Amino acid sequence: ALLLGPLLVLGIRTGRLGEWARTAIVSVATWLAVNLPVMMLYPRGWSEFFRLNTRRGDDMDSLYNIVKSFTAWRGFDPHLGFWQPPQLLNAVVLVLFLLCCAAIGYIALTAPRRPRVAQLMFLVVAAFLLTNKVWSPQFSLWLVPLAVLALPHRRILLTWMTIDALVWVPRMYYLYSVPNRGLPEQWFTAVVLLRDIAVLALCALIVRQIYRPEEDLVRWGGRVDDPAGGVFDRAGDAPPRWVPLRLRPARLRPLARASAAVEVDGRQAVAR
After folding, report:
1. Rounded to the nearest 5°, which phi and psi values hold at 167?
2. How many folded domains does the chain comprise?
3. Using CB atoms within 10 A of its CB, is residue 23 exposed (0-12), middle (13-18) or buried (19+)?
4. Pairing with 245, which of 103, 139, 144, 268 sits 20 to 30 Å away (CA)?
5. Does some domain include residue 219?
6. What is the pTM of this model?
7. How many CA atoms lie within 13 A of 145 on its CB side?
């Protein structure tokens, strides 16, 4: 579901919403084919994952826990009873993620050149992980294939992957606890913060290359467009008329204004 969002924005920018609708329908149908039988036969077991995630507090890997570990802040829901859902934290997580998606959507619609699919997908998944209240170690694997496609720089990626892998060492020592010759929480959260900064740096580099496509190794100086983009590869900008001018690339705005003026003049002439 996360990856349908970038495809929707690109479908709007290129005027290919029909292709996106077919992809979304097939995705939903596939999800239902896999989940619906289990959902009907074992509803309690099927919904346990969602129930657990709703009731979980901020995980040890989350940005919220990092702030708590270095400050006196007690979190958004400090007075919860046992297994009560952290409603305020859940709301904050959702709002922050939606704000990030809105910013990514704005970049995708207004950048001088259409971003590549992998670039937008990496930004969305990274935003989800950074704003989420849970970042389990295996979640980092979601970023690896997208990072390779979005930013194929070996040294940069190996540096980020090394930092992410090194989080394991202080994690294990932190779980030992200090009385058992482990490490204090701040040692672990400091490395987690370094990992988050590395992910933010990747996002910044990707956004830079969106606005400076000549620096994008995949596009090879303009000789290649988006080899992983499917129907969006070499697609031109053709946003629907209902897209506001401020959500169009700057070079298309004068043409859209002129088209709108011609349409208004035509309506006035017919009215006369």
Report:
1. -60, -25
2. 1
3. middle
4. 268
5. yes
6. 0.90
7. 4
Over residues 194-217, the pLDDT tens digits come to 999 999 999 999 999 999 999 999
Structure token pair of residue 79: 């007075």
Whole-angstrom Cα distance, residue 65 to residue 99?
21
Provide the pLDDT confidence category of residue 268 given band limits of 50, 70 and 90: low
- Name the token pair of 112: 């001088």
Residue 36 domain-assigned (yes or no): yes
Burial of 117 (0-12, 13-18, 19+ CB in 10 A): buried
**Is residue 203 situated within a structural domain?**
yes
CB-based contact 146:203 (threshold 8 Å): no
Domain span at residue 92 reads 4-240
User: pLDDT tens digit string along 70-95?
Assistant: 998 988 988 887 778 899 999 999 99
Q: Report if residue 29 sits inside a domain.
A: yes
204, two tokens? 């910044």
Is a pLDDT exceeding 70 seen at residue 260? no
